[in-house]
């Protein structure tokens, strides 16, 4: 089983839709979780950290499910500009080495 | 006001050559990283330095040698380049290392290396 797994997609949704991605991790001792966004041919940019109690930033909601070992990202009212690849990052479990998932591609169309 | 900068942005070279990529951050961060993103878009950490000390060294051929002259700079030198080294190399920095709440990383724009 890979350390961090994501459905590569693409998720193809119309503007205004709600879309959710999951990211599963194998190390139960993992401590920190993040979502990054990467546009085509650009660098990854931090979207949001994921806190144990879940957190929200505008249209974006991140949640952590430790029992089932996954994190999720929910995007409400999708915009064309949300089209990108969303990478989850897991850190911890005895080391501070960040492990990236392969990313989930989102395409928002008019 | 670039936070993390890398040079060059593009690098095309022949097999067997030696090349360097430079990275600088002006965020005052203690920790810097090198990542490799291959053609399948998989982003994998190579090295990390904290206050000029090597703290992460993943399974990377010893043809790759990082150097950190100070905590704002982390350079990557690659000897005897091979076709498989073609990838995008990203530099990143974060505030500190052994504090997971401060682990948010800021990436440079990337260096697209093509080995022919």
Explain what this protein looks like in three dimensions.
The complex is a heterodimer of chains A (110) and B (116). Chain A is mainly β and 110 residues long. Chain A has strands spanning 4-6, 11-14, 19-25, 30-38, 44-50, 55-57, 60-65, 70-75, 84-92, 99-100, 104-109. Helix content of chain A is 0%, strand content 56%. In chain A, strands 2, 4, 5, 9, 10 and 11 form a six-stranded mixed sheet that branches. Chain A is globular. Chain B is mostly beta strands and 116 residues long. Chain A binds chain B through residues 31-32, 34, 42-46, 49, 85, 87, 91-92, 96-100, 102-103, and chain B through 40-45, 48, 56, 58, 90, 97-98, 100-101, 103-110.
Main sheet: strands, sense, barrel of chain B: 7 strands, mixed
CA-CA gap between termini of chain A? 37 Å
How far the N terminus sits from the C terminus of chain B, by CA atoms, comes to 34 Å
The helicity of chain A comes to under 10%
Largest sheet of chain A: 6 strands, mixed
Overall form of chain B: globular
Using the alpha-carbon principal axes, give the shape of chain A: globular
Assembly state here? Answer: heterodimer
Q: Largest chain-chain contact?
A: A-B, 20 and 22 residues
Estimate the strand proportion of chain B.
Answer: over 45%
H and E string of chain A: EEEEEEEEEEE
Q: SSE order of chain B, as H and E? A: EEEEEEEEEEE
Strand content of chain A: over 45%
> Which parts of chain B are unreliable, with pLDDT below 50 for 5 consecutive residues or more?
none
Could you tell me the radius of gyration of chain B in angstroms? 13 Å
Mean pLDDT of chain A: 93
Label this structure with key terms:
heterodimer; A: 110 residues; mainly beta; 11 strands; 0% helix; B: 116 residues; seven-stranded mixed sheet; 55% strand; globular
List the SSEs and their pairings:
The complex is a heterodimer of chains A (110) and B (116).
Chain A: E1 4-6, E2 11-14, E3 19-25, E4 30-38, E5 44-50, E6 55-57, E7 60-65, E8 70-75, E9 84-92, E10 99-100, E11 104-109
Parallel strand pairs in A: 2-11
Antiparallel strand pairs in A: 1-3, 3-8, 4-5, 4-9, 6-7, 7-8, 9-10, 9-11
Chain B: E1 4-7, E2 10-13, E3 19-25, E4 31-37, E5 43-50, E6 53-57, E7 64-70, E8 73-78, E9 87-94, E10 105-107, E11 111-115
Parallel strand pairs in B: 2-11
Antiparallel strand pairs in B: 1-3, 3-8, 4-5, 4-9, 5-6, 7-8, 9-10, 9-11
């Amino acid at each position: 089983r890979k350390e961090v797994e994501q459905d590569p997609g693409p998720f193809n949704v119309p503007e205004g839709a709600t879309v959710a991605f999951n990211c599963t991790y194998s190390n139960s001792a993992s401590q920190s979780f993040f979502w990054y966004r990467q546009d085509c041919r650009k660098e990854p940019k931090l979207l949001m950290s994921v806190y144990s109690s879940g957190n929200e930033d505008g249209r974006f909601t991140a949640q952590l499910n430790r029992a089932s070992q996954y994190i999720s990202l929910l995007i409400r009212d999708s915009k064309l500009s949300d089209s990108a690849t969303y990478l989850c990052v897991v850190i911890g479990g005895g080391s501070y080495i960040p492990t990236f998932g392969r990313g989930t591609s989102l395409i928002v169309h008019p | 006001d670039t936070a993390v900068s890398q040079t060059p942005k593009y690098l095309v070279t022949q097999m067997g050559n030696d090349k360097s990529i430079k990275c600088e951050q002006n965020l005052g961060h203690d920790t810097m990283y090198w990542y490799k993103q291959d053609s399948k878009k998989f982003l994998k950490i190579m090295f990390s330095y904290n206050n000029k000390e090597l703290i992460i060294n993943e399974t990377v051929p010893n043809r790759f040698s990082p150097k950190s002259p100070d905590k704002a700079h982390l350079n990557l030198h690659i000897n005897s380049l091979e076709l498989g080294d073609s990838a995008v190399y990203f530099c990143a920095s974060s505030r500190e290392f052994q504090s997971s709440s401060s682990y948010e990383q800021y990436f440079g724009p990337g260096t697209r290396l093509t080995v022919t």
